[in-house]
Design goal:
binds pyruvic acid, 7-stranded mixed beta sheet, metal-binding, Malic_NAD-bd, Rossmann fold, binds magnesium ion, metal ion binding, alpha/beta, 3 domains, binds 1,4-dihydronicotinamide adenine dinucleotide, Malic enzyme, Malic_OxRdtase
């Protein structure tokens, strides 16, 4: 049989259009995900080429919200190995398992999840791998990291989700999750083996359940080159968006920045990570650390978090209020009327928790209420954008974790922000890799937020955006990376002396030059005859 042959008049541009047509012909988001996944395998350059040109359309498929669906159903839609699974049964030989990865010497960035809290969807076990792949696609598209240098990893440690244990197609280990010393011993061996096998690689921890997220960040952050995206990346991106939102709100109300008050609905790794990072909004506005802390209130499933609550988890203690001694306050409208916040941030995983009464209570207190429903995916978002605009008569300053489309209200177009760590981790990773930082320090994360906040163009400011438009993500990542590199240099954490010799303009040029681009399209799947 003769080999397959292109039609003689075949043109690459047509092929791009053809792929987009095929993508757009799919009506179901998960089918679009499966199509793109297959395209990446057949012709990865074509895949990244159309991704770079169509970010607004494709990122919501490869990342939140659709990646959530891909994870939930991963054992059923699985087609081929596409990442590195490290199993609890590999304990004792993790180094050998890692060493099977084909592009060992290229490895620069790994996103590692244990699948225990994927977005707000809970314990998905080994089905969590697509979150690592989706985050790494954002590194490639958003920061120009070379595809071959990315390592998606899922730790297959078992799952406590019974429906997966009962599913004959489940691809992971069928056992309950390890806890305590068994989990610690696995993680210690894993991190040590990573350092040995990929000596220059940065590890991004992703979607570990809250206790382990805090625990392993604390345990390894000064020992290895590692950061936690949900705690630090989210903290940084929301510090940035909140800074811009507070400026807009203060312009309407005349309130000084230091007088803002933030109410967090949800006090997990993301809620507390963001709350801690937002302390610096207040200290940068002139408050003492203690005064800054007093500006933040946290709420969990049992209501306003107070210090007198029995059995309070460790991570909730820092923001627990000591100035409220009444009966437990559980109703969100009551809490809002008591606290009188200028901003309400949702990291609770509770869909529609910000009801009309809640939004109207915020509106009654503020000329321009800041409301950020940040839970992912969209199916768990605390507030729909349309409701937010209508219930505040267009006054809301809004950012959500998953994307919403702009809408027209009162004859004016309103554009929502996307408060998602995707604006920050590509730049933190890129900067850390380039300057070969030994650790990712708190100040590096803070500088990343400041760089992102100041990256808005005049046009974006005029549109009252709190985050830049997604199309500019490579420029944004470059600016974030410079801030990260300069801070690492200041703290003497860097190990690339050459970058120290460059002024910012040359460093920016170097970063852009190093960004990977898909090569001029060539069609990989067939031989052109
Ligand atoms: N926008 C972004 O960039 C990011 C968003 N997230 C989202 O944040 C959400 C939370 O993530 P984690 O903190 O890791 O999860 P988690 O499960 O540790 O935290 C959830 C928190 O919400 C609270 N909560 C649950 N039900 C509640 C209720 N009925 N009323 C009030 N509070 C309630 C819980 O007590 C807990 O404090 C997820 O949906 C995740 O996708 C996480 C990281 C980044
Ligand atoms: C965005 C993200 O990291 C999360 O929802 O977990
Ligand atoms: Mg996450």
């Amino acid at each position: 049989m003769s080999p397959p042959r292109f039609p003689p008049q075949f043109a690459n541009t047509d092929h791009r259009q053809r792929s987009l047509l095929q993508l757009r012909s799919k009506q179901i988001a998960l089918e679009k995900y499966i199509y793109l996944n297959g395209l990446k395998e057949r012709d990865s350059h074509l895949f990244y080429d159309i991704l770079l040109e169509n970010m607004q359309e494709m990122i919501p498929i490869l990342y939140t919200p659709t990646v959530g669906e891909a994870c939930v159903n991963y054992s059923h839609i699985w087609r081929r190995p596409e990442g590195l699974y490290v199993s609890i049964n590999d304990k004792g030989r993790i180094r050998d398992v890692l060493a099977t990865w084909p592009n060992l010497i290229d490895g620069r960035i790994a996103v590692v999840t244990d699948g225990s809290r994927i977005l707000g969807l809970g314990d998905l076990g080994a089905n969590g791998l697509p979150i690592s792949i989706g985050k790494l696609d954002l590194y490639i598209a958003g920061a120009g990291i070379k595809p071959l240098s990315t390592v998606p990893i899922c730790l297959d440690l078992g799952t406590n989700t019974q429906r997966y244990l009962d599913d004959p197609l489940y691809i992971g280990v069928r056992r309950p999750r390890p806890t305590g010393p068994e989990m610690d011993a696995f993680m210690d061996e894993f991190m040590e083996a990573m350092k040995e096998v990929f000596p220059t690689l940065l590890v991004q921890f992703e979607d570990f359940s809250t206790d382990n997220a805090f625990k392993y960040l604390d345990r390894y952050r000064y020992q290895y080159r590692v950061f936690n995206d949900d705690i630090q990346g989210t903290g940084s991106v929301i510090l940035s968006g909140f800074t811009n939102a507070a400026r807009l709100a203060s312009a309407a109300s005349g309130l000084p920045p230091s007088d803002h008050k933030i109410l967090f609905f949800g006090a997990g790794s993301a809620g507390i990570g963001v709350a801690k990072q937002l302390l610096s909004f207040f200290t940068m506005s002139g408050l003492s650390p203690e005064e800054a802390r007093s500006r933040i209130y946290t709420v969990d499933s049992k209501g306003l978090i107070t210090a007198d609550r029995k059995g309070l988890q460790e991570h909730k203690k820092f923001f627990a209020r000591t100035d409220y001694n009444g009966p437990p306050m559980t109703d969100l409208v009551d809490i809002i009327n008591y606290v009188k916040p200028t901003a309400l941030l949702g990291l609770s995983t509770i869909k529609n928790a910000f009801s009309e009464q809640v939004v109207k209570a915020m509106s009654a207190l503020n000329k321009r209420p800041v409301i950020f429903p940040l839970s992912n995916p969209s199916s768990l978002c605390e507030l729909e954008y349309q409701d937010a605009v209508e219930w505040t008569d267009g006054k809301v300053i809004f950012a959500s974790g998953s994307p919403y489309k702009p809408l027209s209200y009162g004859g004016v177009m309103h554009e929502p922000g996307q408060g998602n760590n995707m604006y920050i981790f590509p730049g933190i990773g890129l900067g850390s890799i380039l300057c070969k930082t030994r650790h990712v320090s708190d100040a590096m994360v803070e500088q990343a937020a400041i760089a992102l906040a100041s990256s808005l163009t005049e046009d974006e400011k005029a549109a009252e955006l709190v985050y830049p438009r997604l199309e500019r993500i490579r420029d944004i990542s470059a600016q974030v990376a410079i801030a990260v590199i300069r801070q690492a240099q200041k703290e003497k954490l860097d190990d690339n002396a050459y970058l120290r010799t460059l002024p910012d303009s040359d460093l920016l040029g170097l970063i852009h030059d190093k960004m990977w681009q898909p090569p001029a399209l060539h069609l990989q799947s067939f031989t052109r005859l």
